[in-house]
UniProtKB/TrEMBL annotation:
The lineage of its organism: Bacteria, Pseudomonadati, Pseudomonadota, Alphaproteobacteria, Sphingomonadales. Keywords: 4Fe-4S, DNA damage, DNA repair, Hydrolase, Iron, Iron-sulfur, Metal-binding. SMART domains: UDG, UreE_C. CDD domains: UDG-F4_TTUDGA_SPO1dp_like. Pfam families: DUF4130, UDG. It comes from the Bacteria. This is Type-4 uracil-DNA glycosylase.
Length: 477
């Protein structure tokens, strides 16, 4: 391989970013500088409106790489992190990324070093941006603006910590495709008219409406669905920090609802409206609770509850549909033929089952008795929805970064709705807690196939597992 060009002088170069979130611009300039052999110490990166490096001056025009210069080394993990880190508000992010890119040329595996300070800093910035995006998805509240032309237009105010507005425009476009809306922020605004997305300069809080005619109805609805039996104040404050409350109309109700939670819970119990006790806070407590659960007909059968197993802090949660006959007898998930097949394919994909938390959407074995045999039956939608209480409790405790749902029942257990596996497999589905859901077929489905049909589905299954493994590597901290 031809070596990268070595610098012939100690010229100082300044790169003025056109936009604070322009990854493509940074990537092109960084590639050019690395190919010309310009070390990080000779480059200054400045944002729009920034005074830049005090000692940088105007800098020198960037050199042109020679024609025979080799391609730049940049791993998929680095690129995935860099695209997010560029959105951070840290003024040193561009220089940090360039320094790491420079080092990647000599050590392509540097991103695997969890003790490296620059790698850890990049991962920290990526995590901050992902959290900020999650908060934007969760806490943007639109208010209807009454216009003279009679058209409904919805306006929201949000205060992001980082430059995430443009990057998240697609999320709101897909979610509110039929609305005309604007999201105003101090870092720039986005507007959607049903056909075109446009941008405008930063706004002020007073530019957004403070209320709308439908707000009273929303507050009544929010108060009616507030479940005191599921209230955990510390968890709520962690997920919904007070800094966002001023932009959320329902936040004004929270102190009163929290204060009256115990009284309201007692009233609900007396009225028979409370279907479950307070959700268990440990995996051991969940195991004891599901053993006593009789909230659906499956729990009334002559069977055992089957709790999930694996590390409590697992990055990956694997969710099956329900225990089978062997799982019911062993009281462990995925120990029968489907589980043995799963182990083979997990090993093939490079995923260690021992490091994953493995569970099922339904906690008891559903069957019909035929002679001495118990014949498996698929759980009904209502039975899956009833058991969501337990799978959500497991997710709250384990907090996986990636959830792999195997089979339609498992997917419904996570999403609360039925999806087509063929339409959603191979792509992440964002979940409200910031994790990702990946959906694939259940191993038992592969066992029922033969010939070319089985070969085709096995390839798809392996591809799904490989994508999950790659995503776990990208999200590893």
């Amino acid at each position: 391989m031809t070596a990268l060009r070595q610098p012939t002088d100690t010229a100082y170069y300044t790169v003025s970013m056109l936009e604070p979130d322009d990854f493509a611009f940074w990537r092109d300039k960084a590639r050019q500088l690395v190919q010309c052999g310009i070390p990080p110490g000779q480059v200054s990166w400045t944002e729009p409106g920034s005074s830049g490096d005090l000692f940088a001056g105007e800098g020198t025009q960037l050199p042109v790489p020679p024609a025979d210069v080799p391609q730049i080394r940049a791993s998929k993990r680095f690129l995935a992190l860099a695209k997010n880190v560029v959105l951070h508000s840290d003024p040193e992010r561009f220089a940090l990324l360039y320094a790491l890119l420079w080092r990647l040329q000599a050590n392509p595996r540097i991103m695997e070093d969890k003790t490296d300070l620059q790698v850890r800093r990049v991962e920290e910035l990526d995590k901050n941006v992902r959290r900020d995006s999650h908060k934007m998805h969760a806490f943007v509240r639109f208010r209807r603006l009454e216009r003279d032309d009679g058209e409904d237009h919805y306006v929201a105010w949000f205060e992001p910590d980082h430059h995430i507005v443009r990057a998240n425009a697609g999320f709101f476009k897909r979610r509110f495709a039929n609305m005309h809306w604007s999201i105003l922020t101090p870092k720039g605004c986005i507007h959607w008219d049903g056909d075109t997305m446009r941008e405008s300069p930063p706004a002020e809080r007073g530019d957004a409406p403070s209320s709308d005619p439908a707000e009273e109805l929303w507050l009544k609805y929010y108060a009616s669905i507030f479940n005191p039996a599921r209230l955990k104040v510390s968890a709520m404050m962690s997920e919904m920090p007070k800094k966002y409350w001023k932009n959320m109309p329902e936040a004004a109700l929270i102190p009163e609802l929290v204060a009256g939670a115990q009284k309201r819970e007692s009233q609900m119990v007396a009225a028979g409206e409370l279907t479950f006790d307070e959700r268990p806070e440990t995996l051991g407590a969940i195991e004891k609770a599901i053993d006593r659960c009789r909230k659906c007909p499956i729990g009334e059968l002559a069977n055992h509850s089957v709790m999930g197993e694996g590390p409590q802090d697992a990055a990956l949660m694997i969710v099956g549909e329900q225990p089978g006959d062997q799982e019911d007898q062993a009281r462990r998930p995925f120990v029968g033929p489907a589980g043995q097949l799963l182990d083979v394919h997990l090993q093939k994909a490079g995923i260690e089952r021992s490091k994953a938390y493995v569970t099922n959407a339904v906690k008891h074995f559903k069957y019909v008795q035929r002679g001495k045999r118990r014949i498996h039956q698929s759980p009904a939608a209502k039975e899956i929805d009833t058991c969501r209480w337990w799978i959500e409790a497991e997710r709250e405790i384990v907090k996986p970064k990636v959830v792999l749902a195997m089979g339609a029942s498992a997917a419904r257990g996570i999403l609360g709705r039925t999806v087509s596996i063929s339409k959603v497999r191979g792509q992440p589905v964002p979940l409200e807690d910031g994790s990702e859901l990946w959906i694939t077929a259940h191993p038992s489905y592969l066992l029922r196939l033969e010939g070319e049909a089985q070969e085709k589905q096995v390839k798809l299954f392996d591809a799904d597992l490989a994508a999950v493994r790659e995503r776990l590597a990208e999200l590893a901290v």
